[in-house]
Specification:
The chain has 234 residues and is mostly helical. It is 76% helix and 0% strand. It contains nine helices and no strands. It is flat and about 80 Å long. About 9% of the residues have low confidence.
Length: 234
């Protein structure tokens, strides 16, 4: 007794259903599956060792895992490397007690998104050094930072994108370290992100309206052309 055939199937091996993304990622040799599991475990660690991530990536590549599956792990390795570099810079700056080094290390910590508890010591030391600086004859750097903060506050009030971008760049160049100064800088950064996001939304809305308008303008001509063709047929 022959088995019933699928509609449209003319013999041979029946066509297979398309493989889902989840089942695709679960495929592979035991070696590749172990490499995936090891890589996932390392990348989920909060303070993962960049060298360990890199070694796991190399093992994953050697086991034949596709490049697109390694993209997230590569980004995790880069973030981990930035955090380690920032921590090392903070540690060295705290030991040297050099104000410029402390400010550079804080900038690196901001870019690496370190927890605020990791930078509290450096912030307090900078505030202490600034107090000593104000009591000395040379207060030029302190004056520059004060002007940068004032410019930030003015840009926040104006809510202008260009003013915020210029004020933030100026503040980053002088290296704000005091807690109250960094709070103003953080507020300006958040506001600038909001303004950029609103601008992108507005651009997308305008593009959508333009496409809709072009479609409505094209519709009568298409209808007229179709009517003309039907008359010719008749």
């Amino acid at each position: 007794v022959s088995s019933p055939r699928r509609p449209g199937f003319k013999g041979g091996t029946p066509p297979q259903a398309p493989m889902s993304a989840r089942s695709f990622l679960s495929q592979g040799s035991p070696r590749s599956l172990r490499a995936k599991a090891n890589l996932r475990t390392i990348c989920e660690e909060e303070n993962a060792d960049p060298a360990a991530i890199q070694q796991a990536l190399e093992c994953a590549r050697a086991s034949g895992i596709a490049a697109f599956e390694l993209a997230e792990a590569t980004e995790a390795a880069q973030r981990s490397a930035r955090r380690r570099e920032a921590r090392e810079a903070l540690s060295g700056a705290m030991s040297s007690r050099e104000e410029d080094d402390l400010r550079k290390a804080l900038t690196m910590a901001d870019e690496a998104a370190l927890d605020h508890r990791e930078v509290e010591g450096a912030i307090k030391l900078i505030e202490l050094l600034e107090t000593s600086e104000r009591s000395s004859a040379d207060g030029g750097a302190a004056s520059q930072r004060a002007r940068a903060v004032a410019r930030l506050e003015q840009a926040v009030k104006s809510r202008g994108r260009k003013e915020l971008e210029e004020a933030i760049a100026g503040a980053e160049s002088v290296g704000l370290g005091a807690k109250n100064q960094r709070a103003v800088l953080a507020e300006a950064r958040v506001l600038l992100k909001m303004i950029k996001a609103r601008h992108e939304v507005a651009q997308e809305r305008r593009a959508l309206e333009e496409r809709r308008y072009q479609g409505e303008a094209l519709a009568p001509s298409v209808a007229a052309s179709a009517g003309h063709e039907s008359v010719q047929v008749l």
